[in-house]
Amino acid sequence: MTATTAGQMRRAAYALPVALGLLAVLMVAALGVGDLPLSPARIWAGLRHHDELAATVIWNIRLPRMLVGMAVGAALSASGLVMQAYFRNSLASPGLLGVSSGGAAGAVVAIGLGWATVSLLVLPVFAIVGAFAATGAVLILARRGSGTERLLLAGVALNALLGAVTSFVLSNFTLSYERNAQIIFWLLGGLEDRAWIHVWIACPVVIAAALLWPLGRAMDLLSLGGAEAQSLGVDVRVLRRRLIGLATVMTALSTAVSGTVGFVGLIVPHILRLLVGPEHRRLVPLALIGGAAFVLACDLLGRGISVRVGIVTSLVGGPFFLWLLRRSP
Q1: Half-sphere exposure of 253 (CA within 13 A, CB side)
Q2: Are 188 and 302 in contact (CB under 8 A)?
Q3: Which domains does the chain have, with CATH numbers?
Q4: pLDDT tens-digit profile of 278-307?
Q5: Mean pLDDT across the stretch 3-32?
Q6: 58 CB contacts (<8 Å, ≥6 apart)?
Q7: Can you tell me the distance from the alpha carbon of 151 to that of 251, in angstroms, rounded to the nearest whole number?
Q8: What pLDDT was estimated at residue 143?
Q9: What confidence score (pLDDT) does residue 4 get?
Q10: Contact 284, 212 (CB under 8 A)
C-alpha cells in the first residue's frame, strides 16, 4: 500500500461526517444570509412559523432557493462522476455531451417563441426535452463509431450547433426586456426567484442518485477499461446505457430549474477522487453532498458580490480546469 493510498483511506474514514457538517453549516447560512439577516434562533422560529416575518422569507424565498441549489449541485456533481468513469478521463463533465447546452437551447426557443408565458411548467419541460434530444443526437451520431472518441467529437460538434441556435434566437427574434432577462438567466445560470414548483421538478434527482449508488462496483471495473470490465462479468453495453441515461436525467433536471451552471461536475468529483480515492460506492454519496455544498457556497458568494451562481462557478472552474490541463500528461 502506497503512502497516497493510505492517506486516502484515512481521509475516507471521516470524509462523510465532515461533508455533512459542512453542508449543514452552509444550509444555515443560506437561510440566514440576505437583505434580512436571520440568526439561527430566528431561522428555527421561522421554520416553525413562530416568527411570521422570518417564516415568510424562509418558506417563500430562501428555502426553495436553497433546496433547488442543493439538487442542482448534487445532480451535476454525480453526473460528472459518472462521465469521468464512463470516459475514463478526469476532465469529463456534464456539458461534454451537450446536455446542458441542449437544455438551455430548448428553454431559449420556448422564450423566443413566447410559449414560456403559457405556464410555469413550459420552460422546464422545454429544457428537459432539449437536454434529452441533445444526448439522443450525440448517441445516434456516435453509434457507428469506435466508441468513446467518436462520442466525444459528436458532443463537441453538437455543443457548437446548439450555441448557434441560441445565438440565432437572440439575434433574429424581436424580444421584450422581460424575455431577454429570461434568456440571460438561462444562459448564465442562477437560483433567483426559485419557487416550490422548481423544487418538485428537481426531486427526481434523488431517485436517479439512488439508482446510481448500486452501480458503484461496476463503475470501478469500467474505469479499468471496457474489455477488463467485460471479462470480470460486467455487461458493459447495459452499464454504459444506464450511466448515460442517469447522467442525462440529472443534468437535464438541473438545467431545467437553474439554467446552465458549469464546472460543478468537473471540480467536485475530481477533488473527491484526490482526497478519498477512486472507489465509486464511496464517491457517489460524497459527490452528491459535495456538489450540493459547492453550489450553496458559490450562491452565498454570488449574493455577496451580486452575481449569479453560474458566473461564480465559472470563475472558480475556469482556473481549475486550466490547472488540470497543466497537470495532465
Answers
A1: 30
A2: no
A3: 3-327 (1.10.3470.10)
A4: 889 899 999 999 999 999 999 999 998 889
A5: 85
A6: 31, 38, 43, 46, 47
A7: 17
A8: 63
A9: 61
A10: yes
Q: Quote the CA–CA distance of 247 and 157 in Å, as a whole number.
A: 19
Per residue in 175-192, pLDDT tens?
A: 677 777 778 877 888 999
* Under 8 Å between Cβ of 133 and 104: no
Distance CA 252, CA 104 (A): 9
Q: How far is CA 38 from CA 29, 31, 51, 57, 296, in A?
A: 9, 7, 11, 10, 17
Give the cell for residue 2: 502506497
Q: Is the pLDDT of residue 98 over 60?
A: yes
Q: How far apart are CA 61 and CA 58, in angstroms?
A: 6
Q: Who contacts 140 (Cβ-Cβ below 8 Å, separation ≥6)?
A: none
Q: For residue 152, what is the enclosing H or E element?
A: helix 148-172
- Nine-digit cell string for 232: 470480470
At position 54, the amino acid (one-letter code) is: A
Find cell 439522443 and name the residue.
Answer: 136
